[in-house]
């Protein structure tokens, strides 16, 4: 890790990348996107064999999304101007956007390529060098991406991918005095440590994209309950629920509670869980045995606290021997229950009934998290009131889980700070530098 950081520092200081004219950097980033598309199947298979995500979704969400992200920031990089300050006429005040230097990026295993690209593309676009540490259980597609970047003409030393244990390689990166900013996606526990490492070393800036316990609120006047159930089922169960924005708390108006739970259970039971490389599979494998055991532990505790499993609840054994879990729906979950408050990061949906708009907002906001939310209603005023009242980085209305590169993704409360995606992400990768020139 020390050698990688030193290489990134040298590459930054000698200007081989940051001083390349914007048109040159743009060309390299576009070429990276082209090559990601060219190697999309290989990248996706590597990733799926590592982390168990269903191939069909991964092809789009990993390689497809990563190529789009590189293109977005390639296009953006030469359209970002500095400022001329409104000073007195004998002074020229200029505000430049300078690259921050060496960026350390630490990413999780659930969508390594997509999340890796969310950090890499804007960091590289703005002229920084990067050292990236993938998760222990999902590094192959990011190692392949490093090769792609070299093939595309990114100068040596500008991107360094170093695998290893979080507590060893990740800690070394986060404690380095030569890293200027740390961008992270992962759990709150590790996020807290990164803030400590920063305080113990060089006060590097730390941007955290953390977990969620996102409410998906269904009102009795939802335009189409059957469609809401179909979309909400994928909103929690795709990638075996290992999605930061998963709609893992269903809050449903009491008048339609039983009907909607039945629709959701039917959707859950229809999903084909199995071999992630099988093109018919809709839900792949859980990432690792500790993750599966954790999921089952959440279910066990929820049942002990009084919830009821209307479908799923256990492991599915398959010939491939992978760690498959049945999409699980738990009803009767209350605000004080463990599964209401804590992120499972598995295919487990908790259901809580409510009677009024105020109660729905109160329940939505009753956890430490604030990443994502969904609202299903045909009442426009209610939809806006909900968007206003729910504390979350994104509120979906009459859908769940959609977004693209044009809008930021980030959390409030203990879901983190800073944003990935959109032009706002660029703020993490630039320093504002003022030139005050006496004329
Ligand atoms: P994790 O926090 O266990 O690991 C994330 C990364 O941190 C890995 O690369 C790991 O090796 C590294 N790490 C672990 N200990 C470290 C240490 N002491 N020092 C430095 N690095 C260390 O998270 P995970 O299990 O890989 O991912 C799941 C979590 O990520 C969930 O909480 C999920 O909600 C969150 N997530 C958030 C978003 C978002 O955009 N907000 C997106 C995806 C996942």
UniProtKB/TrEMBL annotation:
The active site is at residue 209. Pfam families: Aldedh. Residues 2-434 form the Aldehyde dehydrogenase domain. One of its GO terms (molecular function) is aldehyde dehydrogenase [NAD(P)+] activity. Keywords: Oxidoreductase. InterPro entries: Ald_DH/histidinol_DH, Ald_DH_C, Ald_DH_CS_CYS, Ald_DH_CS_GLU, Ald_DH_N, Aldehyde_DH_dom. SUPFAM superfamilies: ALDH-like. Belongs to the aldehyde dehydrogenase family. This is Gamma-glutamyl-gamma-aminobutyraldehyde dehydrogenase. It comes from Lentibacter algarum.
């Amino acid at each position: 890790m020390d050698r990688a950081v030193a290489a990134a520092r040298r590459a930054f200081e000698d200007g081989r990348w940051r001083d390349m004219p914007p048109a040159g950097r743009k060309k390299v980033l576009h070429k990276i996107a082209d090559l990601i598309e060219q190697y999309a199947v290989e990248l996706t298979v590597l990733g799926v064999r590592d982390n168990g995500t269903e191939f069909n979704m991964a092809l789009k969400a990993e390689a497809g999304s990563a190529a789009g992200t590189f293109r977005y920031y390639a296009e953006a990089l030469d359209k970002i101007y500095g400022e001329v300050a409104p000073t007195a006429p004998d002074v020229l005040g200029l505000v430049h956007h300078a690259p921050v230097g060496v960026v350390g990026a630490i990413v999780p295993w659930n969508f390594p390529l997509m999340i890796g690209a969310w950090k890499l593309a804007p960091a590289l676009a703005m002229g920084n060098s990067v050292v990236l540490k993938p998760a222990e259980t999902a590094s192959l597609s990011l190692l392949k991406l490093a090769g792609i970047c070299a093939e595309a003409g990114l100068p040596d030393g500008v991107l360094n991918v170093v695998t290893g244990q979080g507590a060893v390689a990740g800690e070394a990166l986060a404690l380095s005095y030569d890293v200027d900013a740390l961008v992270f996606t992962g759990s709150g526990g590790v996020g807290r440590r990164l803030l400590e490492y920063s305080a113990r070393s060089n006060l590097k800036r730390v941007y955290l994209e953390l977990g969620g316990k996102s409410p998906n609120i269904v009102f009795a006047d939802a335009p189409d309950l059957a469609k809401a159930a179909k979309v909400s089922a994928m909103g929690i169960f795709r990638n075996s629920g290992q999605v930061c924005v998963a709609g893992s708390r269903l809050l449903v108006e009491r008048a339609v509670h039983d009907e909607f739970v039945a629709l959701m259970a039917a959707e859950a039971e229809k999903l084909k869980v199995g071999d992630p490389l099988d093109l018919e599979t809709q839900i792949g494998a859980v990432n690792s045995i500790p993750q599966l055991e954790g999921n089952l532990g959440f279910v066990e505790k929820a049942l002990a606290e009084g919830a009821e499993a209307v479908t799923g609840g256990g492991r599915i054994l398959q010939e491939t021997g992978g760690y498959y879990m049945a999409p699980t729906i738990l009803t009767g979950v209350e605000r004080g229950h463990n599964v209401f408050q804590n992120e499972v990061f598995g295919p487990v949906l908790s259901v809580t009934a409510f009677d009024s708009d105020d109660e729905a907002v109160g329940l939505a906001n009753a956890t430490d998290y604030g990443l994502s939310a969904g609202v299903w209603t045909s009442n426009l005023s209610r939809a806006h009131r909900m968007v206003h009242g729910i504390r979350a980085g994104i509120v979906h209305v009459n859908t769940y889980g959609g977004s693209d590169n044009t809008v930021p993704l980030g959390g409030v409360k203990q879901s983190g700070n800073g944003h990935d995606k959109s032009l706002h992400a660029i703020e993490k990768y630039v320093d504002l530098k003022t030139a005050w020139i006496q004329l």
